[in-house]
Amino acid sequence: MTHTGESCCPNAERVLDNLSTTVLVFDAEFRLIFINQAGEVMLAHSARHTCGRLIHELVVNAETLVEHLAGAFTTQQVISKRGCQLQLPDAPDLRVNCTFTPVVEGGEVTTVQVELRQIDHQLRVEQEELLITQQEATRALVRGLAHEIKNPLGGLRGAAQLLEREITDDALKEYTRIIIGEADRLQGLMNRMLGPNNLPEMRAVNIHEVLERVRELVQAEAGDSLQILQDYDPSLPSLYADPDLLTQAILNIVRNASQALAGRGEILLRTRIRRNTNIGTRKHRLIARIEITDNGPGIEEGLRRKIFYPMVTNRSDGTGLGLSIAQALVSRHHGLIECASQPGETTFTILLPLEEMNAAQ
């Protein structure tokens, strides 16, 4: 129970917990007496940690909220405030629209219900949906293009092999070997662009075991000049996933971060559980949030907007396929990869639904 009082509807808390809007209830002393699951996510603390605390303990700059809370108590009128900037002690700052609704019992206001709607929430949903749509369209285009290239490529390689058998001059055979070698290289490139064709072998997976395997691989490649730190949530349940595909996706991202740092710097691997969170337009009761953060130079905005497209890279020796393949592998788990970057901090966030595990059992 996250409520200290009785509810007239036995399912009221469950209804509120299923909302994507944050709902907080304060008493006359401006003490929090109820918070729904969306509120727990926004404040980055559980109901057990927040209920019973004064509003000043929950929001650093609580003056505006206190003013409108007091107004709702005294006027018994619903008050709305747009564009409030909230400074939270343990979460990023937010801009929200607020609604203060007084709850009247016996002619007096006993509590005030505060609804907080994050202003950029809808924009984020639209951006995620666009990213998913672009990924699907890009994958379909790449698969069609790769198949069109693979067929004449096989004929080209076969013709070069037949020609090599007819040539007796070793100097001329060198040309056919170049043709065969380049055909094989392009064939490998096409296979990587197409990605794995087998169906995922889904089973219960401990994401921290996957992350540790990736950490050890990249650490061995980079050496001691690279620090890979861990900040894992031990309460994170098992994922229903293909461990090999998931390992490859995360390895591509962590290896990409290591290359951006030139093997010198810090990478932080962080896991958290989130409730009632959207991936695109689909709402999930529980998701795993996996963050891979490096302290490198960052990714310029123009490149960041198309970084999950194939063949997009800012490295002269890169193929531009690592992140595109990672996004494709995560999408096969009904998840999504997001990227945020500024100089000194680049974070790739993998969102994976957790309820698939329960559905499979």
Describe this structure in words.
A hairpin with a 2-residue loop joins strand 9 and strand 10. The protein is 44% helix and 27% strand. Helix 9 packs antiparallel against helix 11 (322-331). It starts with 11 loop residues before the first helix and ends with a helix. With 361 residues, it is an alpha+beta fold. It has three domains: 12-119, PAS domain (Beta-Lactamase), CATH 3.30.450; 123-194; 203-360, Histidine kinase-like ATPase, C-terminal domain (Heat Shock Protein 90).
3D shape: elongated
* Count of extended strands: 12
Beta content = 25-35%
Runs with pLDDT <50, length 5+?
1-10
Secondary-structure element sequence? HEEHHHHEEEHHEHEEHEEHHEEH
Any key phrases for this structure?
361 residues, alpha+beta, Beta-Lactamase, Heat Shock Protein 90, 3 domains, 5-stranded antiparallel β-sheet, 5-stranded mixed β-sheet, disordered N terminus
Structure summary:
The chain has 361 residues and is of the alpha+beta class.
Write the layout of secondary structure elements.
Elements: H1 12-17, E1 22-27, E2 32-35, H2 37-43, H3 47-50, H4 55-58, H5 63-75, E3 79-86, E4 94-105, E5 108-118, H6 121-166, H7 170-194, E6 203-205, H8 207-222, E7 226-231, E8 239-241, H9 243-260, E9 265-279, E10 282-294, H10 301-304, H11 322-331, E11 336-342, E12 345-353, H12 355-360
Parallel strand pairs: 7-9
Antiparallel strand pairs: 1-2, 1-5, 3-4, 4-5, 6-8, 9-10, 10-12, 11-12
Helix pairs in contact: 6-7, 6-11, 8-9, 9-11
